[in-house]
Amino acid sequence: MALQRERWVLITSEPELWGAGLGNLSRTMETMSEQVAKRAGRDPGDASVRAYAGAVFGVMLQVSLDWAKDPELDFAAALDEALLFLEDLRP
What is the pTM of this model? Predict the structure, then answer.
């Protein structure tokens, strides 16, 4: 986890790395939508699937950014807590 945090801090602090990573973010969102759709028995293009995947991704990004600023943050616990808010939104 320490190595992952160090990597994330570097990516978020260097504009060139952040910019290069945006392509990966797009692919990650598509993969997440595909997996949510698969679990829900829906099409990956379904609006509820894409909205939910986007919300999950947004939560993950926010917790990751918080973690980059706060090395004491328990990443797993913070992510679990934040994702609970989306529980009722699952397609």
Answer: 0.77
